[in-house]
Amino acid sequence: MAPTRGYSGALTHKYNISRWIRILNNSHRSRHRLHHLSRIKSSVPRRKPSEKSREEEEISQRMRLPKRIILVRHGESKGNLDGSAYTTTPDYKIPLTELGQNQARIAGQNILQIVQSQSESETENNWKVYFYVSPYERTRSTLRKIGKSFNKKRIIGVREECRIREQDFGNFQVEERMKAIKQTREKFGRFFFRFPDGESAADVFDRVSSFLESLWRDIHMNRLQQDESEEEINLVIVSHGLAARVFLMKWFKWTVEQFEHLNNFRNCEVRVMQLGPGGEYSLAVHHSEEELEEWGLSPEMISDQKWRVTATRGDWNEKCSWYLDSFFDHLQHSSSEDDNDNGNDNCAAEVEVDEECKQ
């Protein structure tokens, strides 16, 4: 048995030596490849800063931002008229009332007037619309009535978008139980309260945020442009009261506390986010200060909307209290000596804002 063990040990030793030789050879070849790649990389001419800026400028020119993003709540539904409708009919199947259909027709005429009368295109009032719609029956019916105001050649397309649907309140809703639950919501807070078997406004915020990311990809890829003509694009989003408020909250970076003070959209109410000359969207381009107050915007929020009218895209409004001051108590401005002492440490405090957050 002893010779057998010795023979086995020798084989093992010989195997280990062979394995290490292979590892060393592979390592040598890898270093040779890396050296070769580094030589190739060093031989590639680098772009001058001026060349890079020209390329970025061309990309920016190709990406044409929509002139307006128009939010519309659906018309009056049977659920708005009688809460017991949810007891026997699924929420997504609740239809419009006759009044709701008339409201939708009027909303279509109002939207048409907005995009026609305020068009800035130089070539024959060259504007188009693109619709996003919630999959619920009441929003789809609202869209049908709105669409009657538009010529087919003015409509680029329509997309049903599940992420802008109504907040889920559960399945069939017992009226008396739902009243008690909504009273509890007022005590708990509208944003974080989650309905049994349903969603909270925070849940809606998450999916609307996802929708916004997709929307920006569509814009960046020019998927909303039919051709290279200088046409004004108007996005019309037909959705629900909470989803629309959450959309504005996400876009303008409003806080949860500010959301809690917002008033709901009226049925078929239209709110217009319009692009300013600097590339920022604002509610204050089309709407008056009185309207913004009626919607529940605070003086600070209204001031921010006015600033956005002429702001340059990507700028940061340092005067907005909720961007900084509301999170700290009595922040002091540092002296020049403090700045010198900190040196390059200040660079670590810079916040990198992605393309979507700059809007």
How much strand? 5-15%
Distance between the termini: 80 Å
The helix-strand sequence is HHEHHHEHEHHEHHEEHHH
Strand order of the largest sheet: 3-2-4-1-5-6
| DSSP, total strands | 6
| Average pLDDT rating | 81
| Biggest sheet statistics | 6 strands, mixed
Poorly predicted tracts of residues: 1-5, 47-52, 54-62, 343-359
- What form results from the Cα inertia axes? globular
Question: Gyration radius, to the nearest Å?
Answer: 29 Å
- Secondary-structure content class: alpha/beta
Put simply, the count of helices is 13
Helix content: 40-55%
Itemize the secondary structure elements and their pairings.
Elements (H helix, E strand, L loop, with lengths): L1 H42 L5 H14 L5 E6 L4 H4 L3 H4 L9 H20 L9 E7 L3 H11 L7 E6 L14 H14 L12 H20 L11 E8 L1 H12 L3 H5 L9 E6 L5 E2 L6 H6 L4 H12 L25 H7 L17
Parallel strand pairs: 1-4, 2-3, 2-4
Antiparallel strand pairs: 1-5, 5-6
Describe the structure.
By secondary structure, this protein is an alpha/beta fold. 48% of the residues lie in helices and 10% in strands. The chain has a 6-stranded mixed beta sheet with strand order 3-2-4-1-5-6. Helix 6 links the parallel strand 2 and strand 3. Helix 5 packs across helix 6 and helix 8 crosses helix 9. The longest helix is centred in the N-terminal third of the chain and has 42 residues. The chain is globular and about 60 Å long. The N and C termini lie far apart (80 Å).
